[in-house]
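Troubleshooting: if your tokenizer reports a length mismatch, compare your output against this known-good record of 86 residues.
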Amino acid sequence: MSVPEDRLTEHEPHAGNGLQAAPRGAVEVGDRVTAVLRAAEEAAEQIRVDAHAEAADVLRTAEQEAAGRAEQARREAETLRADAER
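Known-good structure output:
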């Protein structure tokens, strides 16, 4: 007589084939580990997305500041040239 799969313990053979079923506790641990790994992968992907967006913002801000400073330097140079020509 075979034992239903959900009633197997770590010491009972699986469906009469001579193999032992995985202990229920091991299956639960495996499921938990899988869930933790899946959550970690999702978190890592979100961190990558957020970091990429933040890097793009930092780059955009730096480019804007550089353009502003370059314009300011150009204006100052024009003023100095105009003053020197007088």
